[in-house]
Specification:
Layout (H helix, E strand, L loop, with lengths): L1 E12 L2 E12 L3 E5 L6 H9 L6 E6 L2 E2 L10 E4 L11 H11 L4 H15 L14 H13 L5 E5 L7 H18 L2 E5 L3 H7 L2 E6 L2 E6 L1 H6 L4 H6 L6 E7 L5 E4 L6 E3 L9 E6 L14 E11 L4 E7 L2 E7 L10 E5 L6 E4 L11
Parallel strand pairs: 3-8, 3-9, 6-7, 7-8
Antiparallel strand pairs: 1-2, 1-4, 4-5, 9-10, 11-12, 11-14, 12-13, 14-19, 15-16, 15-18, 16-17
Helix pairs in contact: 2-3, 2-4, 3-4
Bound molecules: adenosine-5'-triphosphate and magnesium ion.
């Protein structure tokens, strides 16, 4: 069953077109990540879902019912903000159950739901603390608790982890994901961190400048990006792009800046076509392979995180990054060979930047 339907949605702020014909269908119980660069419209889309912004045209349906004319409190959604937005003068317990008290729910129900949410989030011992006496991670939990006690149809998260340090962020990611699996409420989660999106979501929507560029499962987007933007956005480090031309037999792409070098394709393309070859850092291999799959590269720098090594190199005068899970024995100035499996070569039209899927 579809829980959220965003149907030809547009949003204008005066003369500025912030959301352009957005269409997204979200299954009941799924976890959807909205990603894209700063200013692309992620928060605006979330806020229109919550009812905090009016739509300009199009429809929004929650559980099959149009909500465009409904105020926020009638939409049965709960939003968790980046800033947490806790009431500073209320303790944890009262922050969590504020909305229920506002609705004058029975005392017993308020107490029960608050207790369950506090247990779920490990806040039981902190109920009488004020927000100022909590760590960032604990405040984040209280903000989540406030959403949970409402038992909403839909959770909306706007970068809830961006104020936390790296280790806590990784921990909270899996906590939120576990919570989602337990509560089974539909969640829409905004982040500009594509790793967060890849690891948490069932469905990712990639936005740019108010437009949905592509949506699909995390691996779908990674394996079959529809255009150069999505290809460069999903995956870390980012995909490398090298200008190239399809060879006369259609089976290779020849680098524009060094026509003695080429990479083999696993399909046949239109000869002479100008394109961008997209090579993921993790697909540039240091392990020796067949000569026809090798390209020459000059090492420009080596960075190691301990577990991973990132080698910056130039191929056909173009800087690329190669990622290696071990410690390749290379250093600056070395001439090396990198191997690329034909199945891992992405190609994009040089002009439109759209992925080339059709064969000759
Ligand atoms: N109230 C407003 N009036 C006019 N323009 C606005 C308003 N709110 C947002 N915008 C503009 O709409 C665009 C989208 O903003 P939005 O906050 O949705 O971006 P975002 O994707 O959430 O970015 P970030 O990752 O930085 O949070 C931006 O260009 C922003 O300047
Ligand atoms: Mg935002």
């Amino acid at each position: 069953m579809l829980q959220i339907e965003i149907d030809h949605l547009n949003k204008h702020y005066g003369g500025f077109h912030a959301l352009k014909d957005i269409n997204i269908a979200i299954e009941q119980g799924s976890f959807v990540a909205l990603v894209g660069p700063s200013g692309c419209g992620k928060s605006t889309l979330l806020r229109t879902l919550a009812g905090l912004e009016k739509t300009s045209s199009g429809d929004l349906r929650i559980a099959g019912e149009s909500v465009v004319n409904k105020p926020p409190r009638e939409r049965d959604v709960a939003m968790v903000f980046q800033s947490y937005a806790l009431y500073p003068h209320m303790d944890v317990e009262h922050n969590m159950n504020y909305s229920m008290r506002l609705k004058r729910r029975p005392k017993q129900e308020i107490a029960d739901r608050t207790r369950v949410a506090a247990e779920t989030l490990g806040l039981g011992a902190l109920l009488d603390r004020l927000p100022k006496a909590l760590s960032g991670g604990q405040r984040q939990r209280v903000a989540m608790g406030r959403a949970i006690v409402r038992d909403p149809k839909v959770f909306l998260f706007d970068e809830p982890l961006s104020n936390l340090d790296a280790a806590l962020r990784v921990h909270m990611r899996s906590e939120i994901r576990k919570l989602h699996e337990r509560l089974k409420a539909t969640s829409v989660y905004v982040t500009h961190d594509q790793v967060e999106a890849m690891t948490m979501a069932d469905h990712i929507v990639v936005m740019r400048a108010g437009v949905v560029e592509q949506q699909g499962s995390p691996l779908d987007l990674y394996d079959r990006p529809a255009n150069k933007f999505v290809a460069g956005f999903i995956g870390s480090p980012a995909m490398n792009f090298i200008p190239a031309t399809v060879s006369p037999d259609g089976r290779k792409v020849v680098f524009e800046k060094d026509q003695t070098q080429s990479i083999a394709l696993d399909r046949t393309l239109v000869p002479g076509m100008q394109l961008l070859a997209g090579l993921r850092p993790e697909h540039l291999s240091f392990a020796a392979g067949p000569a026809d799959l090798a390209v020459k590269a000059i090492v420009e720098g080596v960075e190691s995180t301990g577990s991973m090594t990132f080698v910056t190199a130039s191929i056909a005068s173009q800087q690329v990054v190669a990622a290696h899970s071990g410690r390749p024995n290379v250093s600056k100035g070395d001439q090396i060979q990198l191997y690329i499996a034909p199945g891992n070569v992405h190609v994009f039209d040089a002009k439109t930047e759209l992925a080339i899927s059709q064969e000759r």
